[in-house]
Amino acid sequence: MRKIKRLKMFLLVLLVAVFGIIFKLNTRYWNGEDKVNVVEQNSDGGVSVKVYDPKLEEIVTLIIPGETEISVSRNLGILRLKNVWQLSVNEKIGGKLLTQTVTKNFLFPVFLWKGSDGSTNVPFGDRLLIWIFEKRTKNLQKTEIDLGKSQFVRKLKLNDGEIGYKLPGAISERLTVYFVDNDFLVDSPKVYIKDATGTFGVSENVGRVIEVMGGKVVTIEKAQGQDSDCTVWGTLAKKIVRIFDCKVDKRTSNFDLEIVLGKSFAKRF
Known about the structure:
alpha/beta; Nucleotidyltransferase, domain 5; Alpha-Beta Plaits; five-stranded mixed sheet; globular
């Protein structure tokens, strides 16, 4: 019986490996070098942010309590995090509202999501290779941090009068360190941001997210409001585009990365 079980397990692993090779050609995000960050809506209302790091061969899971009070992206109000998913369904936005809200409040650069109903924007090939990576990663290389139990959020009375969690202020570097982009580590890109949003704090928060990734914001220039969204050009522009859902421009710049933010961007950030 043991030999049969071992044979079945071997065949299963072999089958998965074959499928992995087939679908690797069709993956969009998993390349075996870049970190892949995925936000997952848990069935209990909490949210897990998973960081898969193939270079270090480790997986870090940050668990955010669903009772955490946050500012929802797109000016949709102050809510408990557990209610954002249903709001995204009601507004027909999808998981993008969850990733944008997590990025806005926690500065985690995320754009991939998985819903509690099984829906996701992670392509099948990427999901398969991530699953294989999870299976072969040893338990010692897996870290789980519950923000509620680790005092990264504080239990307080919320706006609705009930007890929940609130962010204590600045996000701890003990959390954001997991999101440093491997490409940004090689040579920290110098970033210029032109703020034409006409909204206080938006460009500064975008700059904080980029600095979490490993970039260095050298200038934030305020400009007259423009009815535009978000445009990026320069080296590694595609990484910024994914996080903030911007457009890429092919013009040249004196900076490694140049970003222009308009009023439309401010309305959805």
